[in-house]
Amino acid sequence: MFTDDTLEGQTILITGGGSGLGLSMAKKFASLGSNIAICGRTEEKLKKATQEISDKGKDGTEVRYYVADVRDYDHVKEMVDEVVSDFGSMTGLVNNAAGNFLSASEDLTPGGFKAVVDIVLYGSFNCTHAFGNYLIDQDKEGNILNMVTTYSESTGSAFVLPSACGKAGVLAMTRSLAYEWATYDIRLNAIAPGPFPTKGAWERLVPDEDAKEQFLSKIPARRFGDHEELANLATFLMSDMAPYITGECVVIDGGERLSAGQFNFIDQLGSRDQVKKFFAAMRERTQ
């Protein structure tokens, strides 16, 4: 359904674009004609990703990276200004940067809760607010896509309380601003992915074969998502093919949400003490 000029003339910033789903979306957008800006906190990862994206891009596609912490509003504002200066404009934003870990909620520290919510909710707000004000001040239309989760509404999920709270806030922001900013021709939508294997998240959330099989047993499609599938959906929502879609959250999960509470199954692995030992062992392996 896409041609190599589907995203021609666009410049899209993807937060957390140096790896995982962010990198997959960046490669897809670049292959369809969009200029790409990615940001993150690790420069070496961003350098490597920039080359990978450039290799997938059309001739003439420009790709740049920016070392930035989305939790810092002033830094985010400077980054948006740099993107506009470097590319001449900015037409789209994908709020993809996130953090997550498994924990019994009674064992959460205020710092652990804050670390996730700061990246997920405050980071998404910071980037959205800075980009939105650029569009409004310049009288330009634009497009914002927020990555949430299948437990952002209705079910929530055990053992990932900070993520559930942060992503629910991002979804509320998506719908609130979709109405408020429609007058400025700014669209906001969200994607709620089910399990899509990525190296970083997978190590923290699905550490062994037992957990993997439990995940699969909850998915009617009996498989995990492919990055290309999510990138295709993101492309459609960021393109001129979807001008009348705003305030929507599209779930892509093989039906997993129908079983409710993405990580609730962990409670079936044993007693609460056994579950906590499982979490502790995971933390040791990923440190």
Structural class per helix/strand content? alpha/beta
Question: In whole angstroms, how far apart are the ends?
Answer: 43 Å
Mean pLDDT, to the nearest integer, reads 92
Q: Describe the main β-sheet briefly.
A: 7 strands, parallel
Secondary structure tally: strands: 7
How large a portion of the residues is in β-strands, by DSSP E? 5-15%
Which runs of at least 5 residues are low in confidence (pLDDT < 50)? none
Percent of residues in helical segments?
A: 40-55%
Count of discrete alpha- or pi-helical segments spanning 4 or more residues = 9
The global form is: globular
Order of helices and strands: EHEHEHEHEHEHHHEH
Radius of gyration: 19 Å
Q: Strand order across the biggest sheet? A: 3-2-1-4-5-6-7
Task: Provide a brief overview of the structure.
This protein has a seven-stranded parallel sheet with strand order 3-2-1-4-5-6-7, sandwiched between helices.
Secondary-structure topology with pairs:
Elements: E1 11-15, H1 20-31, E2 35-40, H2 43-56, E3 63-67, H3 73-87, E4 92-95, H4 110-138, E5 142-147, H5 161-180, E6 186-193, H6 199-205, H7 209-217, H8 227-238, E7 249-252, H9 272-286
Parallel strand pairs: 1-2, 1-4, 2-3, 4-5, 5-6, 6-7
Helix pairs in contact: 1-2, 1-8, 3-4, 4-5
Features:
globular; 9 helices; 287 residues; alpha/beta; seven-stranded parallel beta sheet; single chain
Task: Report what the structure shows.
The chain has 287 residues and is α/β, with parallel strands linked by helices. It has 9 helices and 7 strands, in the order βαβαβαβαβαβαααβα. It has helices at 20-31, 43-56, 73-87, 110-138, 161-180, 199-205, 209-217, 227-238, 272-286; strands spanning 11-15, 35-40, 63-67, 92-95, 142-147, 186-193, 249-252. Helix 1 packs parallel to helix 2 (43-56) and helix 1 (20-31) crosses helix 8 (227-238). It is globular, with a radius of gyration of 19 Å.
